[in-house]
Design goal:
six-stranded antiparallel sheet; Beta-Lactamase; single chain; Arc Repressor Mutant, subunit A; 365 residues; five-stranded antiparallel sheet; 40% helix
Amino acid sequence: MEAVGEPRQLGAALHAMTTLMDADIGMLASGRRSDASTYAILIATRQGSYGTEDADLDFPAFAGYRRWGLLQPAGRLHLGADIQRLARQQDVAGTTDARYPGTGESCIAHIDSGNDSVCYVGFARHDNDRFDRERISLTESLMPHLHLAGAINRRYESMRAVSTAVMNRFERYHVGVAMVDEDGALQYCNEAARRIFEHADGLRVGDDGHIKAGEPVETSELLRSVREHIHSDLPDGHFAPRLLRISRGPGGSPLSVAFSPYRGGSSPVMRCGSAGHAVMMIYNPDRPPVERTDVITQIHGLSTQESALACAIAAGESLEDIATESKRSLEAVRSQLKRVFRKTGTSRQTELVKLVLSGPAAMVQ
């Protein structure tokens, strides 16, 4: 139960508990404590089939339990007859029909999920034989695990919401963004990175799902950099100053790759043994930079020449190469770089590279 990430995946655990209880039907339901409502129900039979039928038909005392059983200790299975008796004692005359039709025996428990949410678990038998007390005790011992499964699922839901927002932002990045584990297995990539991988443009994804460079020695260097950053003292989200250059086919300029560690996957609650992941920012210098240069100009108030300088530095070019290509002196380029630092609020080339590769300008497609 502690390994599931979706409520439906609890079906196997529910079937096992139904068999353990020697019941004909098992139930898992989620609801709100405040209004005694339910919004998700899973029914399992002893044969292993599942459905979402109305639990009130198979568990006549369920409505009463939602109203009054929640006042009882969590994690304990209460027999249907006890629930009916409790409900009758609590009902105010004339406000509720306290009759609970149906035959057979049932028992229900609840686990608090927090934030007004509650999880119900129940079992029913078609005959009138009472449940074995030893089986009830054994099943009750599983309730803490069911509670943990619910906590894990809530954490997944929160993580999925955050991940969706972050990934939607990454999809608009001009540079490629890829997340890999310490073995180079691809966990996520945005559209810009997918284009590079699909065309095997310097980097590709192998049949085993791992990122590879065109040359084995560059693949080894890539993996070494990934592991080095995951196990480094660099804070999550901070990019190291050194860029890795990945060669491409004939006529193509090398890709520039920056690395940042992300260790959020290592969580004692999630019981994840991974050392973490690395985020790779992949810059393709041959991709038309016009749009991004315009955005850098608008955001930071740079001139066209200053924006071109910032992009060239982000692409891994040295100041000497930039001076030669632009037919200017090295001192003139350095003087211009100081103006770029002042306008962008940076003080080093590494900070400027991070701003260009992962800042607002990188979001332009």
